[in-house]
Structures
1.
Amino acid sequence: MKRTIFAALSAALLATGAIADEMKLAVTTSFHNSGLSDILLPRIKEDTGIEVQLLVVGTGQAIKLGEAGDVDAILVHSRKAEDGFLAGGFGTHRREIMYNDFVFIGPSTDAAHVAEAESAANALARIMTAQAPFVSRGDDSGTHKKELSLWAAAEIAPEGAWYKAVGAGMGAALNTAAGLDAYIMADRASWLNFGNKGNLALLYAGDPILFNQYAYLPVNPDKHEHVETELAAKLEAWLVSDTAKALINDYKINGETLFVFNAK
Amino acid sequence: MEIWSGITEAFWLLVTLDADLVEITLRSLYVTLTALVIASAIALPLGALLAVRRFRARRITIAVLNALMGLPPVVVGLIVYVLLSRSGPFGVLGLLFTPTAMIIAQVIIIVPLIASIAHQALRELWSDYHDLLISMNTTQAQRVQALLWDGRRALLTASLAGFGRAIGEVGAIMVVGGNIDHHTRVLTTAIALETGKGEFALALGLGFVLIAMAIAVNLAIHVIGRTERGGRW
Amino acid sequence: MSNLFPVTLEGATLRRSGKVLVGPVNLELRAKGVTVVIGPNGAGKTSLLRMMHGIARLGGGSIRWACPPEEARAHQAFVFQQPIMMRRSVLGNLTYPLRLTGTSWSEARDRATQAATEVGLADMLDRPAPYLSGGERQKLALARALITRPELLFLDEPCASLDGRATREIEEILTRAAAAGTRLIMSTHDMGQARRLATEVLFLMNGNIHEHSSAEMFFGGSASPQAQAFLKGDIVE
């Protein structure tokens, strides 16, 4: 017991000093909330000696952190934002790692009959027609951008009292949806790991448009010379390795696979 | 129901002395106590100086301090973030997302609070002492010293108010600390995280631990200061 | 040792928000004796003492000591009508003025113990000063004022709210201090006390010095009609 305290104390006190190889990685809430990071990080430490410090933020903020040089690499899922990041010269390149999918969650009573939808666009149309409450992340995150692109694809302008942009992370948005008995779009991983499901249920999934590609982008050392380029490269090599492949593909919650490894 | 499971959770975390809990609790204490010591070293003499000295910017300083007391921590966090960011003026120090950054933010948050309360308390003491200390030909510094020493009990209250605000603060340290596991995660950011995950019982449990710790620190400081002895002392 | 006296006041005036509290005062005081300031309530006794000591800023005229003003201030002390107790022990109160001027802690403690013994507070050294009785407080204030061995001590009605026994103890201390060479300037409304202690008298009326004479002359019947009336207990204006 004394040991635990001592170890923890010294960890807390020494946390500022660099003990091992440390790098900072900005990741999206959905990635972290899935619980996958808890599986990957210890193995990364074991295999490469790198201590990856996660900054769990929305895609919008992750991109900002990368642009400012406050992190060494980012792991996000919003193609458009990633392309902009690369075009601005802030990243060296983009490496696809894995994907999961988005799902539609809603009250189990399903007044809008989303469960019978034929496509993602159709599901959104049903919600709009029923004027059923819908919670949007509204925080410029990858999930939020994806949701907006789906509304655009369905040619619906989401506005009105039923459309509630909460400006919060995935978990907080899910909490809000649970409280309001509202519909919401979430990534499957966050949903499965979510502890406060209440009356909510998974109503629709499977449209290929809902696939959610995660990509790894190291920050460009030409812009910020202090970034840990070597460590970022080492981490990338690990992320596309067979070890990572097995860990990612085998990660399950309640028997359900969450992520599909697709790095090339 | 949720409250009950929160209490149970807190109880189990405590009796099993959960390693993660111990770690983040100690880090919370480390960050906040360090911030408190630094902030007190700035704010208490400042409060005394405001009581003792009649300078031109005094009223404005007091007004600004009072206004800053209500400053939302997240704004402080954002300012510190922008300053410490690699692209900011102090970026070379590499302090962003470290406990040091969290300490800086908390110092900024609680200095106005402590200084303001200290000033209120010492103003009264100064009106008692004014004639005597002037008569004794004291220097400005000696007056400040006398007020700080003889007003130490009231100042302890001021500091504890600062501690209370800092230990329970989440907005600023989330932004500048980043809530990195084993690095900058403290009780409040862990609570925010678990709430985000919908793990209300665990979040509540951590909340109860936070409350218990705040009470323990208050009691400990009072006992150490033996301030409960003898009314006005 | 510096010499403060003679001190000369020329047109010295004290104002508060435009109103003259005392003055213009023209006065010269010499090095010896006990000056007692008397006069009706509101005559300006307290204001005169505060002005001379320098706690109240001079509104006009001048006060000239025989030495530079900073040096003069350093050799004065003031005992207030309501003794101001610092929130520390009796010992802490007594050592404070010594520590201000850099006396070592052990010497300060020895002198404080000595001073406490002289005023009969020796067994109360560790007691919080704010908890003392009225008489004990004033004795402590007196000891604290005398501990730096000032050349000049101002006292503003030091026995105003004290009983007979405490008053007698205070007077004994004052008599000893005067005998040891401390110059006293003290206001009082107790004519008995004035007779017992004074070597010279300042009689104040309406913020001005009405009469400045030796105690013998003043109490011996050659005072002005107003002063005579005041001594008899008549209301004078």
Note: The longest strand of chain A covers residues 95-107.
2.
Amino acid sequence: MNSFKIHINDKEIDANEGERILDIARREKIHIPSLCHHSDLEPHESCRLCMVEVEGDKNLRASCALLAKPGMKIYTDTPTTQKALKINLALLFSQHEDNCEHCGRVEKCKLHEYAEKYAACGNIHIDRKKKLPKFQFGPSIFLDQSKCINCQNCSDMCSKQTKGGFITLKQAGETFEMFPSEEKNIDCIYCGQCIMHCPVGALSEIESYSEVKKLLKDKTKKVVFQFAPSVRTSLGEEFGMPLGTNVTDKIFAALKKVGAYKIFDTSFAADVTIIEEAAELLEKIAKGDNTTMISSCCPAWVKYAEFYEPELLKYLTTVRSPQIILGGLIKTYWVEKENLDLRDIVSVSIMPCTAKKFEIEREELFVDGKRPIDYVLTVRELAKLLKELNVDLNKIEPDESDKDILANPSGAGEIFGAGGGVLEAALRTVYQKLTGQELENLEFKPLHEFKRTKMAEVTIGGKTLKVVAVSGMENAKKILEEIKADPTKYAYVEIMACPGGCIGGGGQPIPIDDEIRKARAAGLYSTDEKRKVRTSHGNPGIDILYAEFLNDKKNKHKICHTTYEKRKKGEIKKI
Amino acid sequence: MAKDIITKIKEANLLGRGGAGFPTWMKWEAVKKQEGQGKKIYVIANGSEGEPEIFKDEYILKNHPQEFIEGIKIALETFANSEAIIYLNHKYFDKYKKNLEKFSEGFPISYFRKTAGYLAGEETGLLNHIEGQRVEPRPKPPYPAEAGLYNLPTLVNNIETYYRIYEIKNDLYAGKAFFSIEGDVKNKGTFEFPENYPIKKILEETGNWPAFDFFVQYGGGAAGTIYLPEELDEPKKGATSIIVFNRQKTDALKLMQRWAEFYSKENCDKCTPCRESSIRILEMTKKNKLDFDKLEKMFFVLEKTSFCPLGKGMAIPYRTLIEKVLKK
């Protein structure tokens, strides 16, 4: 790569060919404000807040898109850039509903941050979006047009995650606004990546935490919680902890403090998922069926498959997601074991995900006619709940006591939260079942032609299994095309709809970027490395559960397996 | 042969006739450089003519279809493995396509009906429209010459530019341009004059110099600059459209409102200054209350920070009208 020098604010800086000024400035800790810039997206150049002066150029230039050139002299903080910034900020602020005190996003809202920082707060014009509508996509996503600043990050992201782009700009009178698509063949997969990439609060999850808060105070109810693998290394961010901090034991303590009756760990159910998926894969191999098996624990991917690629449904494993398995176990096995009345139980799960809110409404996943889960909270909702109940995760003492077997996962169950983790966890078990030996180190090779895709080849008894893990639907689409062309190309495929897997999920703390994804995933893997039990089949709790409950075929079927079907477009509600 | 025509265009100093005035030979040479990579090259004629009150391209479609198509054929000959698309606004498409086809038959020339708005006349907005993408300008670079339609090298020229290239090829070019004349005049229409002819002379020689107090908008019915009679002795740059306004009979605020309606409807809403300013200016004109301080702020960000020429140029008509007409 070609390197050269440029100057930013008279400071000499090394730059590489192809680098953009805003990225260089961020790397050098030179502050340039920007709302629409996101490292996951190509520069869209819409907000016009990152304007800089370039020596020899009479117009200001958008630094997010501006490529560095040798000898370039950039000025980020001049009377002209400051004047332009304040005016554009004021224009943006005037189109955004002025209701910050009631907005759930205010702490993380970049527009609010800049408006205060640059004293450009307040509307210089009347609030033109006040009366615009709000939409709900299924039970998951909330779009508030009155807060939208037209940056197009959501629609850019949505066109990667869906086929055709569900959230799109449409002309509504004199302006364009973000609308859900009315096309019959385009639907939301509820992944929530639009929320993760919205710089303001125009997109959010449909919240349930107020209901849960109420139920926690209801003496007649026993509220039980489970939390997903990836939650343990992301929740800390909401309390200002360093990226990737594992707060598992603090989650137990915090939930107890707010009145949880019992707390379980979804990672334990991930171990169950692995046992079942491994069995399914082994059976396939034994039958000589060479076609691929695709993971199904990501509900956004399942929705994608059911809506956009129904012909691929036959390759999906029938095994339910860990959330649903654990929900089912809580409402059957555990309730019976503890001799409790099911009517008193409220089952709440803390998920890194907005599609999980949709998953719990799928009737084919109901157990004995009942929902396995009553409420799904995102990580952000849990943080709000704790903060409103004055629980500071920094101050609370970790609690390791009173852990049911359903709260004791293996390391394999915990790495589920990182892209590739499901695949790795499954292979640890498949390998052991086929060879009688433990799989030492699985070496993944990145598939260079595809982004966020890694591949491994495992040779078992002279037979080589080619397996692949991919995250982000944009990248998964390419693997799906490969499967369509040759269904035997890969033995096992892990698909996670969100870039990076659940650690980058649509219900995770905001902001998100690759550095954050890496830190959250590293947190999970370092926990795994420290665990004595690193395989699902090695988890003693699994043996107990199977001996006591799941070896019964009927139980296993109703708790662990499901079916898929071609799905029609989901509900869009206008408010 | 190929080098010949590009050199001839360069020597003729032909500037693009869409209004921006970019040297045509540079576009052609940039596309020529892309040859030989086995890539298809697209040759596009931009006949969107979306600016209000301009109709000089229509004049060519009506009166010189053969010469225009000849200009396109010259481009097809110049670039190996090329294919042409004539992009026409829906009105022109419906009216002139049939006749144009008489001359384009047998050549790789197809027609595209423009159904999108004003911004689809901007060359990269146009490419998006043909590709079925949302109509908004694309970041440059890459320039269309390198990665245009479907990411392939693409030449985009205005209809008149092709007509002039036909003239250049056949040694008929005399540095002339078509001017459309509209507004409070006796002889509306399209007239041919030397490209650097002063507006005053054009109006005089077409019998259109008014006897009353007036002002002129030159450069398009939305983006054009306002000039007073005493400013019309020198040649002007920009789209060759002259609109004459009777000063007594023109409600300047209403005129501003018309522009604002046009802009807020026709802009793509991509970037903050253009999207918000167009709407806010419309609000003010509707309320009959101009806040000059706020306007000046919006003009500043429009000119300094807009993404594309539409936004960058939006302040000009307002500013010149306010300075020269409204504030006096």
Note: Chain A has a mean pLDDT of 94.
3.
Amino acid sequence: MTFVRPVFRHPESPKNKLGYTRKFYEGALSTLCAGCGHDSVSGAIIQACFEMAVEPHRVAKLSGIGCSSKTPTYFLANSHGFNSVHGRMPSVATGAYLANRDLMYIGVSGDGDSASIGMGQFVHAIRRNLNITYIIMNNGCYGLTKGQDSATADKGSVNKTGAANMYNAIDMAGLALELGATFIARSFSGDKEQLIPMIKAAMSHPGFALIDVVSPCVTFNNNVGSTKSYDYTREHMEATAAVDFVPMMTEITTEYNEGDAVTVPLHDGSLIHLSKLAKDWDPRDRQSAVNRLYQAKAQGEILTGLIYIDTESRDLHSILHTTEQPLNLVEQHQLCPGSTVLEQINAGLR
Amino acid sequence: MLNDFVIRFANVNGTGSASANTMFAKAIFRMGIPVSPKNIFPSNIQGLPTWYEVRVSEKGYLGRREGIDLMLSVNPQSIPKDIANVKPGGYFLYDSTKDLHKDLLRDDIHFLGVPMMQLCMDKFADPRQRQLLKNMVYVGAIAALIDIEVPVLHQIITEQFKGKEKLITANFEALEMGIQYAKEHFQCPFPHLRVERRDNVGDWILMDGNSACGLGAVYAGATVLAWYPITPSTSLADAFGKYAKKLRVDPHTGKNNYAIVQAEDELAAIGMVIGANWNGARSFTATSGPGISLMSEFLGLAYFAEIPTVLVDVQRGGPSTGMPTRTQQSDLIAAAYASHGDTKQVLLFPSTPAECFEHMTTAFDLAEQLQTPVLVMTDLDLGMNDNMSPPLHWDDNKVYQRGKVLDAEALEKIERFGRYLDVDGDGITYRTIPGTHPTKGSFFTRGTSRDEYATYTEEGPAYVRNMDKLARKWETAKTYVPAPEFYQQEKQSNVGMIFFGTTTYAALEAKDLLEEQGIPLDVMRVKAFPFSDAVKTFIDEHERVFVVEQNRDAQFKSLLINELGTDSSDLYSILNYDGFPITADLIRQKIFKNLVGKLPPPFVPEKIGPPGAESSE
């Protein structure tokens, strides 16, 4: 845990195209344990928003309850935040999104929050293709209540007390694939190179963008025998591809090998470049993504990177045929039919 | 008996009887005679017995009344019970396609047989049509017997099946068969039990409370509805959808100025409502008892984090799944103190569809002004039955009260924004909507303890300041909520009666009945919780106060005692909790007994005439 953050910043700190420095995207000082994977994810969110030149006040950050759900305090201080109730962030985010389709929504959850108490809401937010970047900081354990196994802990994984988990794990990425999620990625809190472009791509995706981030709990689940420790994850990580996110209107400078490279154009003109590591996998083909995921699991690998993307994604407002204007800006004269109409309705009830 | 009787239709659920029965009630209403129809239906889609009970009351008493003058029976399953329920001297009109078993006969009521099914079998080819038109046959027979104006029925049928000429013709034919059969076989109309045109309904309407709430939400500017299906609130969500589709589609773009989400459960429904309101849209949900239990955690969040929230609770019989298709007012305490910790929620108690409509705007205004949940407490009786009501009213000069919300311009002028800083001293602080200003006004909404600047804190004094501020807001709320209504110019009795919501109909009738017996009462209808000072004054000014409510545990009385510190020995409960709407006679009896020390003269049903007199068979 850090108690003091240096206020000094290099006077020449780089600015993004809005003229903001990275500092503008930071939040309050973290109160999580020193070395917590979650702080790295917060850092990646800050970096992604800075690089994307997002207006912080046009972002709403929402979370449930748990260590992970505390993190929205630690990034984007100029965004409105909402720390809701345990497992219920998806519903609050759904309501918020219905009210204003113009903001960007970042949802932060944990494995207890999404895979147990909030499983129902997680599932249904995916079904509705809620337009949100949904980050699960997944450490396989309940940190705030001192280390109980969560529903994503692998069977046989040993927690700090030395007990092996007796139950099968829920694979959130696999589940999301099954549910028809339109953007599914997995990453590791210790791999910024991969995580930052992944967050950028997720923020550009018009629909439910899941990033399941393995984010080790240094206090309760970083021991030998745990399958969500730093060491274990580093040893067993298997990337789908090297990922590069190219925002709209940005010149492509990176070179890619013919044959291995896939370029996925997003709705807004942005591009995701992937240097594929597996020839039979195409992130736009759900079936091949399922195969790739199962194959990795069978080999004891933690598959990371972009797993699946639906480039034809239609988000909730599009499904509901809602007006382009944010509903919270529709004015009374557009909303209230007035007394003349009411008189006609009365007449029809006599 | 002229324009004053109760008729009950005993039907089989899912046989299309509802539409015929509604036409019957509407015909009487259009003849200018006050009418109060009530569905008594099972938690079932098809097959089980269902009843439709219509009270006709020239004097305009709309509460339920015991004693059935005329029973229409087309359900063999419930015949024994239906025969037993007819008042001595009353009538039992049945489908005589099959003979009644002689053991079922009573000698103190009249049996009138019409071979409804046979008539339809002879006339119509399609089996489903036979079933549906059988309902019109009995409507025709009853119309002849009690003298309903046939052109009125024709008009209603024509409106109902507008554009479907074949159906209109078939329904006219079935109606006529019933009329002719009755005229040929019985003395029509009945000498006493009949209707005669009046001008006693004025400009009133016939509407169910759920539709009124749904339409009220459209007028109130609600843009987001999140809900989960549950009887008896489902038709409220349906009504919002129906009216929004008609009134809220942008004429230029064809796109919806509203969004409706059927959530995965009540927890998600209320979560969405809170999220939408937090983000500056007017959003609501509708539910019933079990939903209130599920939504409680979120209601606590909205109370503590101070987020406007509107919920309609169409109450049904509890506890647990209880009686899903019966009425009660038994969610009061669960709603008033919804959620763990120290919480108090604002409640509204509409008693007519007109008030349901009006209270939706009141609820949104209060929710945004007070930044807290407002629960509109209706019930199945009000929500799902067609209630006679004053017309819905909207004032075009009305402006939505959005409460203390700071825009970008206002934020510019502020040195430091404190979301929970009570600058006005009324416990209501200023909020901001996400996306307002690049550098000012953002804050963290949380269910955890926080200081005036929305920063997390576990400091005791900061927590206490916040809780006291919420208590201060509760005091302010008392002056914002609708005041109680009194039905006397000045104090005329030492005895008072308090009621609310659907208990109103029966309570006001009981007041008249008792007055006729020489017992005048002062009465007060409470419209909201927290109770305003006038409620306490009324109780203090009367030696004995009866509190009428529809639950077992006198929940409303508990609220009065708990919130006002009233001496419980001054308050007497009159309770009804069998799932049926409370009757005036029950109230009359209990008050009479309490005041006079003995039961009032029993209810003596009028004898109409010797059995069989009207039958020409």
Note: The two ends of chain A are 70 Å apart (CA to CA).
4.
Amino acid sequence: MINQRISRTINFISWLGSILLLLLFSYLAWRGYQQTPTADVLQRWTLAFLASELLLLTLLSEVKRLIRSLLQEVKQSENLKRRAQIEAAEQLSKMASQLPGMVFQFLLKPDGSNSFMYCSEGIRDIFNLTPEQVKDDAGPLFDRIHPADTQTVRDSIIAATKQLTLWKIEHRVQRPNGDIIWVTSRAVPERQADGSVILYGFASDFTERKQVERLKDEFVSTVSHELRTPLTAISGAIGLLHGEVFGPLPQQAAQMAQLAQANVKKLQLLINDLLDMDKLIAGKMLFDIQPQPLLPVVEASLHDNQSYAQQYQVYYQLQAISADMWVNIDSMRLQQVMANLLSNAAKFSPPQAVVNITVQQQGDKALIRVIDNGCGISEQFKPYIFSKFSQADSSDIKSKGGTGLGLAISKQLMSRMQGEIGFQSEQDKGSEFYVLLPLANVAELPETD
Amino acid sequence: MTELQRIMHVEDDPSIQQVAKIALEAVGGFSVHTCGSGMQALADYPTVAPQLILLDVMMPGMDGPTTLQQLQSRYDLTKVPVIFMTAKVQSSEIASYKALGAADVVAKPFDPMTLSNQIRQIWLDFHL
């Protein structure tokens, strides 16, 4: 195409040049003939014209050749580049095909139509489709998403592409043979000049992990429930012995009964914590959130934990700076959080220490602080303080008791009550744990007489 | 108001049956009739004529709530408080048991030394 255009242009220049040369040399020959009217003059100018014409044609032919060779080089270089791109894409495709999932470029056009500009071979394993089947229209892939999840997936894509935020979702896929698998996907959106959005992402089958998680949760749940029945009997039987229902026990036997009872209580706490964690993870823990005054709940927590603190010869001191705050809470669950903070403060404080508890308003939130002068938390342990089964030192389990689940549960509980929990601590100087709760809207409060 | 004496305890686990019986009889001075299942409770009810029923929630075959419904449909329980015994003591669950007609809920594991007093208090509150 371009060659034809060049040939045409050169031919045009050649014709035009020839005509101009002819006119020029005719004029010069006519002038020369007027000055010296001999045939020799005409012959000389004719020869000069022919020589010029030859030179022009040679020059133009050279230019044509030069342009052609330049074009050829450009073309070759483009071909090389294209081949390199194809090779790179093939290499990338080969690598992507080895990934345990599907790499994709999903195009969402402003008119709502969508397709997969690129999709790795992983689509076969996950959706039982080929990359070609979704190249022009992503519809076949959406048809494979479990009907109960289709709308959620669509809504999440629309939200991510509108706000240009990371798209992340877990959903089910129904395979043609009826099998249901779990897929996790994530992608980053990028807006294009024409208003369309490309999602660059990765999807993988995590059915196995989901099954393991479910089995683990079921196991914990079953074991915990099954443990409770014998524990009820053991706890009751030891309680009867220790209560001397069958007559006074010899001193050593009484000591043993007390020891057994204390350990049964520890076991009960562990099972309760495991069950709470299990319920929180499974989203089965039900909350009875009501607007209510905060101070009585804190006072009740202190009252309930007083005897525990006395074991360590530690005393609680309450300072209610703001006394009449109302919050939206499940009082039982907030007391559970407070019990964790109060018992930890008592456990890690030296004998005769005082643990200060303050209740005050901070902006539109209620702030509860539990401040101790205990051993504090080491820098290494700080990042793990709210993790499951976390204890600063495994020997803590023996020396201080506890399951290492209390703070993890407290964090989850606070989050469910729209609150926050945090801490600051310096080793050997003490710790301060705080709880922040949004104040209840005055309009929501029940009317009082 | 008559004094509480006859208690029917419905529980499938023999160990818990035994502990509860001793706790209520030896510590509380009550007379306890133990039933190993909801079906047995339905059958024994007329002869035992309990003043109060302690009912386990999770039992094989007929569970606690079903046993309560069956008892209510066959006998007049307006003067017989029924107390559920369960490890599930979330506030919403307590509310649902009370909605079924339970007078109260006792958490498992229970303290055998205070169980009698706890039950006596529920009995008093029920007859207030």
Note: Chain A touches chain B through 22 residues (CB under 8 Å).
